[in-house]
Specification:
The chain is of the alpha+beta class. The mean pLDDT is 88. 39% of the residues lie in helices and 26% in strands. A five-stranded mixed β-sheet has the order 1-2-3-4-5. It contains four helices and five strands.
């Protein structure tokens, strides 16, 4: 198996375990879009690279948000870049979250 694909699958499995979620077959390229569904709460899309930069397309974020909205879920993008892990959510979602209310 290609190393890039192996690492991407590892990322998906790791997040699915951590959030008690389920993996979508084929990384969401079928009827169920995106990579991981967290029980009724969050729809996760994964991106990763071993390179120094990663491209995040506006269409990727819009499509994730659209699917999550249809399903009543919070859209979250998980990024692995430079050996670090990041979570990206839309500002309005963050500001309306319990996390933000504790910080503001």
């Amino acid at each position: 198996m290609d190393e890039r694909i192996r690492k991407s699958r590892q990322q998906e499995r790791r997040i699915a375990r951590k959030v008690d979620g389920s993996l979508n077959a084929g990384s969401g390229n079928g009827n169920r879009k995106n990579d991981v569904r967290q029980r009724g709460e969050v729809l996760w899309e994964m991106k990763r690279t071993d390179a120094k930069s990663i491209t995040i397309k506006a269409t990727d974020l819009r499509d994730l948000r659209k699917t999550a909205s249809i399903e009543g879920r919070l859209p979250v993008m998980h990024i692995e870049l430079g050996g670090r892990r990041y979570v990206v959510i839309e500002e309005d979602d963050f500001l309306s979250s319990d996390l933000a209310s504790g910080l503001l």
